Amino acid sequence: MKKSMFLPLFIFTNISFIFLQIHKHSKFIKLSYDKQSKEKEKNELLKQKQELGLALHTYASNKETIKKFAIENLHMKKIKLIQLKKLEKYE
Prior knowledge:
Elements: H1 2-59, H2 63-72
């Protein structure tokens, strides 16, 4: 009886290994695609950072243009006195 169970068990094991290899390969492809899209997004963000830095350097001639750039392009708001907090000195 053990000999009759060996062959189907062997075949089932080999087929399951094949499916596991296919699953592993498809997961690898999916992760590679995700990595590629994240790297593309990272490169776009680095390019945008460089462009903003360049724009800031061109506007750095006086403080008013820097302030105008920060408020209009970067959507920064003027700071209020209530928002300031005093830090105590620890000794």
